[in-house]
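Internal tracking record. Fields below are filled automatically when a chain is submitted to the structure queue. Please do not edit lines marked as system-generated. If the sequence contains nonstandard residues, flag them in the REMARKS field before resubmitting.
Queue: standard
Priority: normal
Entity type: single polypeptide chain
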Amino acid sequence: MAKEISRAKYNGYFKTFGIILLLAGAVLKYLSTLENFAGKNAIWNINRTIYDLPIFLIIIGLVVALKGFLSKSDGDNVIFSGKSFGEFLTNNAILLAMFVLVVVICILQPKFMQIRVALDILTQSSTKLIMALGICFTLLIAGTDLSAGRMVGLAAVISASMLQTATYANRFFPDLPQVELWMPIVLAILACMIFGALNGFLVAKYDMHPFIATLATQVIIFGACSLYFDMPPNSSQPIGGVRPDFAAIGQMKFWASRNVNIFATKGFPGISILIPIAIVICIVIWFILNKTVFGKNVYAIGGNREAAVVAGINVFKNIMGIFILASCLYGIAGVLEAARTAGATNAYGNGYELDAIAACVVGGVSLNGGVGKVGGIVMGVLIFTIIQYGLQFINVSPMWQQVIKGVIIAVAVAIDLTKYRRK
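SYSTEM-GENERATED OUTPUT FOLLOWS
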């Protein structure tokens, strides 16, 4: 039987639940503080049992409560029924499965409930998210981009090869003077954008399927990158010895402290610079997709290309812009990966595009085009990273990790096709 409640009452549930979580987190944190005074004589070591769970409860409670307070109360009534519950399960199946998995991991290994672990997950997600945001543009027009991973490798090799320290024994360019930091970074991104323009031209001019066009470009990029990487005196040796100012772009941390005892982990581990960089890029991409004519054209072309042409949209220019913008994001991700790892090889980025596509699909980007949001892509990337990190945390075999990842992709695509058929 269906039950209908007002929007104000519905928001009230969020407020109540959020406040309960806030209070629960505060109480647990207070108990752990009392235990710190008790010292080694404490009967039950809360800190070693729940780690940073109180902090997570406070953060989640704050978010849930804010949703309740900030949501409009004058909207349509909310209907609870078997049908709406089934639709909720369908739309959030992957998210619910991830939540269950996280709970199981926390039970098996309580150390997973640490701020340090959460920040590691966010750091690992940053470059993946930048790449997924790029590839989502090609998916929104019912296409794809198989060359994305190789562009990441190209940008990493170009930037790292030109930003080595002067005293490094095996310099890629022995006679190259110390150039400004921004120059190799810009060159690396521009190189990717040239290949992105080639992708766009093949798709827009000759109506070539993006799968074939980007597959051809993928091979060209890898060959060109390998030729560059094999140039003497480097001769295909891994590039290392990068300059400290370049490495700082991917390794610097904010507010790291070993002395602050705010969390159970005794000290704040610091926030990687990659996290705010990814957040800024997310905001920029959200603005492009939602507040610009170009973004609206992307959705229009993906929804119905023929109708977009009739509406006067220049499909050629927009497709060119889509692939060039996407390649720019791949280049940024490649530069950040080289800085994070303080080196590069021509194998960097291999297979990254498949993970990015999978994360987009899991995040709600339709393979049929025209449907997808930045928030969903963020969730998709986080889901994959959390699952991968969590399974490694409890020592699950890498082979089983691949099986689980494949099942998630298959389920996500099946759900996407089910939604499409309903529409």
